[in-house]
Amino acid sequence: METQKESEEKGDFCFLANVKTFLSNFDMQQEEYWLGGMLGVMGFYFTTLKTGIPSVVNGRSDEFEGLYAHFVEYLKEPLVTERFTGKEEALVRAGVLLRAGMVPMMWMDEYYLPLAYNYGKNHLWVMAVIQKETEASFEIFNNEKRIMQKEKSEELLFRDGVIEIQYAPSRPGWKYTEKEMAVKGLRQVVDNLRKTSSLEEQYFGIEGMREYKKVFEACRDFNVIYDYFYEMNRGGGLYKTRRNLHLFLQELEKRWPSREGQACASLYAELEEKWTKITNLTFKLSISKDPGLQQRIGKRLEEAILLEEQGIKQMEELMKALI
Prior knowledge:
Blueprint: H1 14-24, H2 32-38, E1 42-47, E2 56-60, H3 64-74, E3 80-84, H4 87-99, E4 105-109, E5 125-133, E6 137-141, E7 145-149, H5 154-157, E8 163-167, H6 178-194, E9 202-204, H7 205-218, H8 222-232, H9 238-255, H10 259-288, H11 291-322
Antiparallel strand pairs: 1-2, 1-9, 3-8, 4-5, 4-8, 5-6, 6-7
Protein name: Butirosin biosynthesis protein H, N-terminal
Organism: Anaerocolumna jejuensis DSM 15929
């Protein structure tokens, strides 16, 4: 009652770790940074809305549904989607798929998933991999192994009265070449960074970075400053997403060397360093409450934003070189 292979590796970003685990069952091993690069995960998002999690600041630009749609679009054959209005029927079907050697995935609301980051705080839907079944539970993978109790899974699984299961009926493959996927990923990152928003109190891309800088410099609540640090330090935060893009660009330079690739990788190495420093100084500020340090961080934010704008141009040049 288990999938062909299991990955126990905890990743930086749970969405990518889940996709990586799913693919590993089909001998389609991928590094997290490569998946993140080809899917165009990196971006920027900031909101001052009260979401249950204070002060969301992260280095990606889409909810999991959007990222998942990018992943599915890259597959040569579509995944099968089955929807159920009854819990028992859905859970029985998940067990049948496991016994048939399939790798079912199910949408779950982390608000109801014990030990998840959003548990009891924020409604965030994730696509988790189902790995094993016992009489009373399923073992699932959502950036690490967790247990889903069958008896208590209604709120976790039902969205708009439906439970959804997706799986590959046969070994999946990629619709595009690696170079084509790399270019698509770079284009998505550029679009993420150029994205603007008409949504109230929600900001994206370079526009969002400038709004964050303004709010950060005016903030005198150092509990909120700590929240900024905590969010920036997570797997989808600023320096880890830039680190992963830097690794992706280094890999591109190895496979398809170019002057543009070298320049782009160098720029994102610098951005990784800048966002790491900003993140660490933000933590220091939450303790010291030093207004002088806050001003210095503001200047570092401006430097990072200007470099992010240069990064857009560098990626556009790299895409031209790769095509």
